[in-house]
Amino acid sequence: MTAPTHRANWLLLLLNLRTFVALILVLGFFSFAAPNFLSAANAVIVSKHVALNAFLAIGMTFVIITGGIDLSVGSIVGLCAMVAGWLVLNGVDPGFGWAVWFNTYEIVGIVVLVGVAVGFINGLLITRLNVAPFIATLGTLYIARGAALLSSGGRTFPNLSGNPDYGTQSFPLLGAGHFLGLPLMIWMLVVVGLAAHYISRRTPLGRHIYAVGGNERGAALSGVKVNRIKMFVYMFSGFCAAIVGLIIASQLQASHPATGETFELNAIAAAVLGGTSMSGGRGRIGGTIVGAFVIGILSDGLVMMGVSSFWQTVIKGIVIIVAVVIDQAQSRLQARVALAQEAAR
């Protein structure tokens, strides 16, 4: 192996580990710059924020691996939060002068179905009507946000503490409950993260997701049901967004139609920072979760330092751009190394 190739391999290794390097850097910086950043209480707060970003980023990772994008996840979060609030407070009035009430488990199931249904609509627009993913999910972004606003006339659904008479008293536990000393949402993230990792690495479905993103036409010619794969990833993204909507409504014991605004930016940033290629075909769930930690720690650290929310938005945008630039540089370097190794044989 020549010296230039050896150096290129080391550089590739560093690029592959960039998310961990970024995590160490932000942890080191804020441990000195932000007082009490490493305290146990702040660690719990950060972990909760990371969990919300990570749920959305896991779904976004599958979508981006197929070469798509889902801009609607933030609006799905808001819509699902409002559906949960409506069901807890009002039940469903079928028009006969009496209401149908649902317990917590049934509300969770209904809200998840709403999120998956929006993902299904995204998939239909993209696979059946050949609408570009950016345009399709931009459209559903506005539709879902508008539906959330219409559900309450723009007002908040307050006091979602539940009612024992209808079996909804456990609703606040989704966002505030603990199990073995950790927030319940962290355990939920562990389950979803492990399931997503298993799907991506150990199942034919996972291999087909990567195949669609790597070469869609080649995947179709080899027998992969491309449209079904795309439908799955958008429905899974909707599922993840519904979980986040439920957690936020439960945690705050209130739901507002603006819930989830700009959440899609955090999800995209975490996925790209974690090594998911915007051109499709490459990405890891583990890297995405580490990327969510970087984004979550960055956001909370800036808040603790008193940095303006306007500057926080600017910094997140810079992070996305830098991550994409590094990803493109990694792709070019990998191509050059592959050519050099082929020439040396």
TrEMBL record:
Transmembrane segments: 20-38, 50-69, 75-92, 104-125, 131-150, 171-199, 231-249, 285-303
A Pfam family reported for this protein in Swiss-Prot or TrEMBL: BPD_transp_2
Keyword Cell inner membrane: yes
InterPro entries linked to this entry: ABC_transp_permease
MF GO annotations: hydrolase activity; transmembrane transporter activity
Membrane topology: Multi-pass membrane protein
UniProt-listed Enzyme Commission number(s): 3.6.3.17
UniProt enzyme class: hydrolase
Subcellular location: Cell membrane
GO cellular component, one term: plasma membrane
Keyword Hydrolase: yes
Keywords: Cell inner membrane, Cell membrane, Hydrolase, Membrane, Transmembrane, Transmembrane helix, Transport
Main location: membrane
Protein name, per record: Monosaccharide-transporting ATPase
Organism annotation: Rhodobacter ferrooxidans
